[in-house]
Amino acid sequence: MSEVKKIAVIAGDGIGPEVVGEALKVLKKTEELFGYQFETEHGLFGGIAIDEKGTPLPQETLDLCKGADAVLLGAVGGPKWDNNSKELRPETGLLGIRKALGLFSNIRPATVFDCLKEASTLKPEVLEGTDLIVVRELTGGIYFGEKFRREGAFGEEAVDTCVYNVQEIERIVRQAFDIAMTRGKRLASVDKANVLETSRLWREVVNRIAPEYPEVELEHVLVDNCAMQLLRRPSSFDVIVTENMFGDILSDEAAMLTGSIGMLSSASLGEGSFGLYEPVHGSAPDIAGQGISNPIATILSVALMFRLTFGYHEAAAAIEAAVKEVLDAGHRTGDIAVDKSTAIGTTEMGDLIVAALRK
Ligand code: NAD
């Protein structure tokens, strides 16, 4: 038997509880198949926490997360809380939890499943073999730099400053090299070193760390070129590492390669192996409670947790293979179905994936 891993489960709002429920079924099946032991404990977060505890991020939820090895999050938010003051909005809780848990990187895989190639706006032959990960720095750069307005020679001016220090760059770059070592051993570091001083420092740090990973093939790509190459030859990328704002834009671009938001998983990582795992999509209030949401993004988030936090690579591959098998057999939830009349529900999709899961 393996050691017990503690997972804090935060279902959240809207379709959050539905999709997390299916992910937990998959988690349970891996215990049986691989002899793992998971201890799951549920916490309140987001709109439901505002309703029941008067705050989007109650201290007990934060304590639960801090005491866990990993966090599985559904989604938060919804129209009910949209007009609340800033401190009583679910999204404020999201920023708060990332900060409190020291999560400095965001990891987003973009894998194109062959049978879903038609769902993308790109030509199937361009997408062939695409399987990449964007590693985005999450707590530095222009989003967090000093911001102010002032009177200039031509009237009102606005200033946003972009700051990165060596330590911030080193930790994310090491994480990206480590992830590359578990995959195709290719890393593209994206910057704008022809113009920005922060990018020149970024590139220096990357070049200094690279010799520690002699097996990883490194390339430096300018961000504008990367935006183009993602559309032209997405399959040539393995791991992309970049700063906060470039990563924000490129990870959304990469996400669109796959064609459906219901398929995209993500991780936010801090120091060590701790991570928060969640689907990229939101709480989808338009379909909440109807049992038609796609649970695959959350199920693939569990696979990501297995890889990045627990090092359970075999089980992660088994989950991904089960998802592929179910899709290859033609099963689709409404969001990815071409013929909507044949679409299956959330629980049915979860059950099929559990049934397809094999050691
Ligand atoms: P959304 O991702 O919730 O929904 C966008 C569209 O995609 C909707 O039509 C929805 O039905 C569909 N969709 C999303 N996930 C799906 C799934 N798993 N299966 C099938 N269809 C799916 O984005 P939104 O509508 O802009 O936001 C809704 C709420 O979610 C807002 O309150 C927003 O603030 C919140 N949100 C939360 C997070 C998070 O918790 N990390 C992220 C994004 C948005």
TrEMBL record:
Transmembrane segments: none annotated. The record marks Y143, K192 as: Important for catalysis. It catalyses: (2R,3S)-3-isopropylmalate + NAD(+) = 4-methyl-2-oxopentanoate + CO2 + NADH. Mg(2+) binds at D224, D248, D252. It comes from the Bacteria. GO terms for biological process: L-leucine biosynthetic process. Its cofactor is Mn(2+); Mg(2+). NAD(+) binds at G78, P79, K80, W81, D82, N83, N84, S85, K86, E87, L88, R89, P90, E91. InterPro entries: IsoCit/isopropylmalate_DH_CS, IsoPropMal-DH-like_dom, Isopropylmalate_DH. This is 3-isopropylmalate dehydrogenase.
